[in-house]
Amino acid sequence: MLSRLLSRLRTSRLLRVLLALVALAFAGYGLHRNWDGTVAALARLSWWSPAGACAAAMAGAGLMMVAWQRVVAGLGSPFPLGVAARVLFVGQLGKYVPGSVWAYAAMMELGRDHGCPPRRTFSGTSIALVVSLGCAVALAAATLPFTARSVAEQAWYLALVIPVIAVCLHPRVLTWGLNLVLRLARRDLLDEVLPGRALLAAVAWTVSGWLVYGLHAWLVIGDLTGDLSPSAYLLAAGAYAFAWASGLLAAFVPAGVGVREGAMVLVLAPAVGTGNAVVVAVLSRLAFTFTDVAWAGIGFLLGRRAAQASPGEAAETSASTYAAQ
What we know:
mainly alpha
């Protein structure tokens, strides 16, 4: 089924356009469902906190993109940043469509357009996602016991994910697992083992991304409560990390809509009040939906510019980008 889907995406420009439009429609539907709450939330806030939340979400997503780029480069396909933005962010619009296969399928075909075999895009995306999950759970485990103890006690089992992820990210274990999946899917196997330095670089960029992500909720909490202390930041960063991980694990829900908001309210309500927690959750969804669409637009424009470069110029750019890393 996946092979037929990829074949259709590869040969039909119309299908690609329709998939992008469907993804945007679902993203718009998610905003529509929260529209009244969003308007009410914005009315309670100063201009600087929603603007700062969107800026933090955009910056954090940019750091996550670099982490993904490092992984794919380590597997043998060094994308320039503009191409990486196109493949990652335009493809990720598919996460708003029910069924997690759409984002993967779109990214694999966009990667193929720029010379990256689908097995590398699939593997690089899977690795980056596992790294991000591990970092999110680790951040939540490090902060929630001090900022939301009751939630930490109820979700203690999430900490068990950390050593499992650490073992699975060993380069040889990782390659074996990904090749097993590719073999079952009857796809070509990986021809490169992810170097340890590429994995460490991806972890460093991902941790940086998560720390920046925490700023978006912290700014809104500070605007609502007047508390912009370090402890409020730890609460905000841990709450979003816990909420994102909860939404990701609920894979049947497009983009974790509803699950992520509920998890954020669960963590934040005891500290800032239920009303304020709902405002933070709604603004968080708004900021990240804006980020997804804005980065997809930026990636589309940057990718078109890269595609118009001559093949020799593109190859030279890719090689110099990877060498600089």
